[in-house]
Amino acid sequence: MSESKRLLVIAGSDSSGGAGLEADQKVIAAHDCYAMTATTALTAQNTQGVLDVHHTPPDFVAKQIDACIEDVGVDVIKIGMLASAETIDVVADTLQKNDRKPVVVLDPVMVSTSGAQLLPPAAVATLIKRLLPLTTILTPNIPEAKLLLQRENEPDPGSKADMIRMAQDLCQLGPKHVLVKGGHLRPGSQTENEDIVVDVLSDGTATSLFVKLRIESTNTHGTGCSLASAIASQIALGEPVFDAVQKACHYVEAGIKTAIPRGKGHGPINHFHSTYTLPGRFLDYLLARADVKQAWKEHTEHQFVDQMAKGTLPVEKFKDYLIQDYLFLVQFARAKALGASKTKTIEDVAAGAGEILHVQREMELHITYCQGFGLSQKEIESTPASQACVAYTRYVHDIGNSEDWFALQIAFAPCLIGYGDIARRIHDDPDTIKGSENRYWTWIENYVAQDYVDVVKVGKDILEKYAVLQSPHRIEQLVEIFIRATELETGFWNMGHGGGSRVSEG
Predict the structure, then answer these.
(1) If you ran DSSP here, which 8-state letter would residue 154 be given?
(2) Contact 283, 456 (CB under 8 A)
(3) How high is the mean pLDDT of the chain?
(4) Sheet holding 34-46: strands in order across?
(5) How far is 7 from 79, CA to CA, in rounded Å?
(6) In this predicted structure, which of 124-138, 257-271, 279-293, 305-319 has the lowest mean pLDDT?
(7) Is 73 left (phi over 0), alpha (psi -120 to 50) or beta?
(8) Is the confidence at residue 195, as pLDDT, over 70?
(9) Rounded Cα distance, 254 and 271, in Å
(10) pTM of the full predicted structure?
């Protein structure tokens, strides 16, 4: 068993358990990391507000930090509420005197929910001077970002461009990355869609936007603390900053969606949803997994499809692929029929029948397309299936016979989603040869056409709907099915690229 990554949280305590150190420790534990703490303040608070604050003497804060670093060791430090200039100074001194400079995630707790400034101006200036240059990623909300930039009397950002400039300006103060969180902005101020929230990540040069639906909920206490701790956990686990932020956003989103209301005010998120359900959206989670990434990359960025994009793929190899793809679709339709037989309602049976009819229409188009390459239906249907085709279709049928209906949908997924992803990537690539100059352009257009996009969306919605009902153990089994099906899909490209052998169905 590998050793858990070590995170030290320097922050204040929340007696109600929804924010501060208590929330941080829950998040870190949910990510299978080890949490240590240096308490900067004790608060008497609940879901309705903060009643009182007792500050920890700064020299004692330093002793807590030293005790953790000198014994257990630290991989990542997450900093939250610091309360005073003196505490900020001792934290900075303690971090600077250590030879091994850890990653620092700084959530600048500076403004209360009601808008009151929690740090005096002198402390803000000290934080900017002493801590921001030591920070790997800074995670302010809009009021905190304005305070750090001394723009607290100016209007809030009115657009995504304003937020990008704000993040870039904050990078000039020293942190390597800045994530400006847009949740505090009034609905519709960032985009034309009032249901959308935008967060902006910048390193001063490159910028990424994280766009998500606004969730109407009162269970948002401690979201800032939780997001920063989730980012810190993901970085400790080896994720680059962009991926860490993306996964942390999904984690918090799921925490809000699955939260149980507590208290009379703003309750906490559900910190432990990932121990029994999924850490965010299933497909995002699936394709971001380390054990899936390589298999998916080999499938979607294969030399076979890149040669189609350039128009350099030998036509005989493409014809061989077209024949095998048609033979695969026959077995694909049979597997869809098997899936329909496993459903429990007439509506799901009818949906399965509709999918089979869609495959039939796709096969009819396939025949017409093949005729353009001099291939007749008789020639196609008389050709033996290749080893790659037989291996893939038999695997799908085996899953259909031995597993449940949802496992079969997972086995279908690499084909359904992969073709859409591949076609979209090469369709939008400026280096792709387009139009009549590329004999394979029609193939590319078929899989970015609206009817195929609609089919993919239906398939994705099904995966999302049923994935949340699975246990963590079952998810691991389904991931294995997805990886194997992806590898077999890649085998199709290998067959086409190498001109694979054929065997009879037997």
Answers:
(1) S
(2) no
(3) 88
(4) 49-55, 34-46, 6-14, 76-79, 103-106, 137-138, 177-180, 196-202, 207-213
(5) 10
(6) 279-293
(7) left
(8) yes
(9) 9
(10) 0.66
Backbone angles phi, psi at 213, to 5 degrees: -75, 140
Which tokens sit at 217?
A: 């909920």
Extract the tokens encoding 123. Answer: 């402390």
> Cα separation of 179 and 199, whole Å?
7
CB 228, CB 77: distance < 8 Å: no
Residues 462-502 pLDDT 10s: 898 888 778 767 888 999 999 999 999 999 888 866 644 33
Place of tokens 């208590």: 22
Show the DSSP H helices in 187-289 as ranges.
Answer: 223-236, 241-257, 282-288
With a cut of 70, say whether residue 504 has pLDDT above it: no
Q: Which residue has the tokens 């290998």?
A: 494
pLDDT at 109: 87
Task: Provide the residue type at 174 as one letter.
Answer: G
Q: Measure Cα distances from 442 to 55, 430, 435 in Å.
A: 68, 17, 8
Which amino acid would we find at residue 32? D
Any idea which residue has 């169905």 for tokens? 505
**What are the catalytic residues?**
181, 220, 222-225
Tokens 């100074």 correspond to what residue?
Answer: 89
Instruction: Kindly report, residue by residue over 253-298, the tens digit of the pLDDT.
Output: 888 887 889 999 888 998 887 765 555 578 988 888 878 999 999 9
Residue type, 333: A
| 3-state DSSP assignment of residue 110 | coil
Which ranges of 372-503 would DSSP assign to H, the alpha helix?
377-381, 387-402, 405-428, 441-446, 450-467, 472-498
- Token digits of residue 323: 């024949």
Q: Is 161 helix (H, G, I), strand (E, B) or coil?
A: helix
Amino acid, res. 426: I
- List, in sequence order, every residue forming a beta bridge with 106; answer none if it has no partner: 79, 138
Q: Are 81 and 109 in contact (CB under 8 A)?
A: yes
* Polymer length of the chain: 506
Give the residue among 158, 280, 143 at the shortest CA–CA distance from 215.
280
* % of the chain with per-residue pLDDT over 70: 92
| Cα–Cα distance for residue pair 114/100, rounded to 1 Å | 39
